[in-house]
């Protein structure tokens, strides 16, 4: 799956900030552009990882495909 990310250099430190517009709050950074891209890839994977939730026995779980 591909995600669009935005890289922005910090003029003071020379490091890179990176964020994914489609995933609110999914941000990262790196000393280089390559490092920032690797870090945001990991951040996206963690962002998309489902959280464990406790449901009552009567609750139903289903998957919905969007595409």
TrEMBL record:
Annotated HicB-like antitoxin of toxin-antitoxin system domain residues: 5-50
Pfam families per UniProt: HicB_lk_antitox (PF15919)
Record's signal peptide: none
Source taxon at top rank: Bacteria
Family annotation (InterPro entries): HicB-like (IPR031807), TA_system_antitoxin (IPR051404), TTHA1013/TTHA0281-like (IPR035069)
Record-given protein name: Type II toxin-antitoxin system HicB family antitoxin
Organism: Drouetiella hepatica Uher 2000/2452
Organism placement in taxonomy: Bacteria, Bacillati, Cyanobacteriota, Cyanophyceae, Oculatellales
């Amino acid at each position: 799956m591909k995600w669009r990310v935005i890289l922005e250099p910090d003029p003071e430190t020379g490091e890179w900030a990176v964020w994914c517009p489609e995933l609110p709050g999914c941000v990262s950074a790196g000393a280089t552009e390559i490092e920032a891209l690797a870090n945001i890839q990991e951040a996206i994977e963690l962002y998309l990882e489902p959280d464990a939730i406790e449901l009552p026995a009567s609750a139903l779980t289903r998957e919905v495909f969007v595409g």
